[in-house]
Amino acid sequence: MKNRILGGVAATALTAVSAMADEVRVYNWSDYIDESLLEKFEAETGIELIYDVFDSNEVLETKMLAGGSGYDVVVPSGTFLQRQISAGAFQKLDMSKLSNNGNLWDVIEDRLKKYDPSNEYAINYMWGTTGIGVNIGKVKEALGEDAPVGSLALLFDPANMEKLAGCGVHFLDAPAEMIPAALAYIGEDPDSQDKDVIAKAEGVLTPVAPFVQKFHSSEYINALANGDICVAFGWSGDILQARDRAAEAENGVEIEYYAPSEGALMWFDNMAIPVDAPNPDAAHKFLNFIMDAQNMAAASNYVYYANGNLASQEFLEEDVIGDTAIYPDAATLENLYTTSPYGPKTQRLVTRMWTKIKSGT
Amino acid sequence: MMRRAALITVPYLWLLLLFLVPFLIVFKISLSDTALAIPPYAPTMRDGLFALLAELDFENFVFLTEDDLYWKAYLSSLKIAVISTVLTLLVGYPIAYGMARAPEEWRPTLMMLVILPFWTSFLIRVYAWMGILSNEGLLNQFLQWLGLINDPLTILNTTTAVYIGIVYTYLPFMILPIYAALDRLDDSLNEAAEDLGCSRMQAFWLVTIPLSKNGIIAGSFLVFIPALGEFVIPSLLGGSGTLMIGKVLWEEFFNNRDWPVASAVAVILLLILVIPIVLFQRNQQKQAEAEQ
After folding, report:
1. Locate the ABC transmembrane type-1 domain: which residues (chain B) (predicted)?
2. Is there a cis peptide before residue B39, judged by omega within 30 degrees of 0?
3. Which of A99, B108, B111, B162 lies 20 to 30 Å from B234 when distance is taken between CA atoms?
4. Which residues of A36-48 are buried (b: 16+ CB within 10 A; e: fewer)?
5. What is the rounded CA–CA span in Å between residue B100 and residue B114?
6. Contact B9/B236 with Cβ under 8 angstroms?
7. With a cut of 0.85, is the ipTM above it?
8. B37–A358: do the CB atoms touch at under 8 Å?
9. Distance separating alpha carbons of residues B52 and B55, to the nearest angstrom
10. How close A124 comes to chain B (CA, Å)?
11. Do residue A351 and residue B256 have CB atoms under 8 angstroms apart?
12. Which residue segments constitute the domains of chain A, with CATH numbers given?
């Protein structure tokens, strides 16, 4: 009897150990992967995949800075990645475990160096631009045939916004996206950390804020697709998803995405391994799986975002690789800017300014 | 003597573990500075106790007085919490009264119906209200079908929606203590009042209400306290114009990554709650003593 109990305990302990060894916890953005890839990973490696999602960098960052998140792979955007690397939140990747490393695209790796100087903490998952989603029919109805659809003037000229307010405009509820855009519109450096320059963005955003129906970072996908709003300032892939949903619904809504002619923000979402990841070995296996050319292509074909994987490009569908809204041509690529993280004092100023712009207090 | 000591120790230990210790941790963070590290503030216990004590200061509390955002948010939250507590009382009291007056065999069922919504996640219930209150939502469709309105009413993303959400969510917390008080009420007291010449209305005001006072107070606290720091309801149902301290706290914590200032905001929120409650409690005690 005693032996049996002991044996039982030992067996339980063994199961617990093997369960831990065969588990990987991934924390990614919502609606950001072809879910069949998750099953494929489990089938190929025998590792149980626990997949959680978040919808804002701030939530992820708070978990990372509190420590002990329990995740093995997380997906912060560039500026957040840089700050969390400085805080010591991530471990260096073991390149010997990433045999698909050669698939990565050097152009994107180079740009990523701004945030991860030696490309040693993270690999790029997806990248994209922030720009303007337009319901062509409604905007032309409000502003006429020569509406400045590809320009930030559509959003930041109060005369235009006053006319668009009737059909509905959404802005991202993300000051780190809106303030650089406002600065690009008035010809200032969008990446400025100077508080006097940043203050000028308030002058651009405050006059148009009353005409914005909602500041929100995800509702615009449905709202655009259903024709509830006519303009959204948002993320490229989201707006393209709205375009496709509208086309599928055959509701007469025609959506286009424009990277603003004044310059568009280029952002990167990257996979990294937390310093206290319970299972870094399985985390590397997941990364290597994602870095496989066909897997990465499947993800991009599904979410309509460009990826940092050069080898995947031959497997991309024509409406992804051939769409300059997803893979911009060389001229547009020149016109894209990146931003740096705000320091603590500047961040406070920016958050405060954003509250003031939105609520008037 | 021993037994008495043990009896007193248990609740105090409870208070110490679940209230005082967490409060002291938050208070300590409110006296520190932000840092780019895990955790994102300094100094921490790892720096040694003396370094820790030497570096703490009240600068974050001074900062809160320098920007009018904070006291505006506190005031606005107080206003929203007071109004929704009164509304919840106005809705909840008649329901509790009806339950207490219902035939004995119905009461368990009625009680069940009050508790039933808790079986669904709070978040899902608030999301359901988004579906009801939106411009194309059930409520507007119903009112338009009745022909009462031509254009949809904008309720979602306004402060009105926040009131609806809070009253709906916290209603059971108001009903249950009032019901408990009314249930214990001896009906013969009301009969005596009527025998002595009170009308039914007078008997209600002079006998029933005062005797259910404890239930009303308990229910009001249970609604007022969580409503004051409410975050989920205003962020889902409220608009950008709805200023509440819970939202400010979230922004400090998540957007500014400033745990010290967020903690300072939380400490003051706690003081706003605890001080009036302590004063009230003391006042009650004095009254009770005076009556004896």
Report:
1. 74-280
2. yes
3. B111
4. ebbebbeeebebe
5. 13
6. no
7. no
8. no
9. 6
10. 23
11. yes
12. 21-126+270-327 (3.40.190.10), 129-266+339-359 (3.40.190.10)
From A179's Cα to the closest Cα of chain B, the distance in A is 15
Q: What pLDDT does residue A1 have?
A: 37
8 A C-beta contact, residue A40 and residue A285: no
Check CB contact of A294 with chain B, cutoff 8 Å: no
Q: What is the mean pLDDT of residues A244-270?
A: 93
Give the per-residue pLDDT at A281: 96
Tens of pLDDT, residues B133-192:
987 789 999 999 999 988 888 888 889 999 999 999 999 999 999 999 999 888 888 889
Give Cα A328 to chain centroid, integer Å: 17
Q: Which residues of A touch B68 (CB under 8 A)?
A: 361
The contact set of B with A (CB < 8 A) is: 34, 36-40, 67-69, 72, 157, 240-241, 243, 251, 253-258
A215: closest CA of chain B, how far (Å) = 8
Amino acid at B251: E
pLDDT given at position A74: 97
Tokens at residue A156, please?
């930041």
Closest A-chain CA to B248: A355
Distances (CA, A) of A39 to A46, A292, A303, A305, B107: 10, 15, 17, 21, 51
Measured in angstroms, the CA of B276 and the nearest CA of chain A are apart by 27
Q: Are the beta carbons of A242 and A224 closer than 8 angstroms?
A: yes
Question: How many CA atoms, within 13 angstroms, populate the side-chain half-sphere of residue B162?
Answer: 29
The size of the A-B interface in CB pairs under 8 A is: 58
Name B196's Cβ contacts closer than 8 Å, sequence gap at least 6: none
Phi and psi dihedrals of B258, rounded to 5? -105, 80
- Residue ranges of domains in chain B: 68-257
CB spacing of B39 vs A214 below 8 angstroms: no
Query: Taking CA atoms, what residue in A is nearest to B158?
Result: A214
CATH no. for B68-257: 1.10.3720.10
pLDDT at residue B265 is higher than 90? yes
Model confidence at A11: pLDDT above 60: no
Contacts of A62 in chain B (CB under 8 A): 253-254, 257
* Dihedral angle of Cα A169, A172, A175, A178, to the nearest 10 degrees: -60
B88-115 confidence digits (pLDDT tens) = 999 999 999 999 999 999 999 999 999 9
Hey, what are B168's tokens? 């709906």
Within 8 A of A358 by CB-CB distance, chain B residues are 240
